[in-house]
Amino acid sequence: MLYKKINDDIIWIGVNDRKKLKDLKNYIPLDNGVTYNSYLILDEKKFVLLMVLRKVKMEIFLSKIEAMIGTAPIDYIIVNHVEPRSFWLNQKVY
Description:
The protein is an alpha+beta fold. The protein is 19% helix and 30% strand. The protein is elongated.
């Protein structure tokens, strides 16, 4: 699934990672992998990206954004997972 429309203004553009991640820092078993839930909010004048994602799924994630808004700029990025390895995407999205 490329994306899922939540309503007219909110689109789920998350990515499933069923193979790479089998546990969360050795604390929580993830036998079925994990889903990175990210959303694109489409306002009349602004685009907002709520994101969390691992680098391994970058190309899929970026293609979903491009399918929804083309090359239009994203006005706001809200990172809902603060970990140093998560910030690489900010450079790719800008």
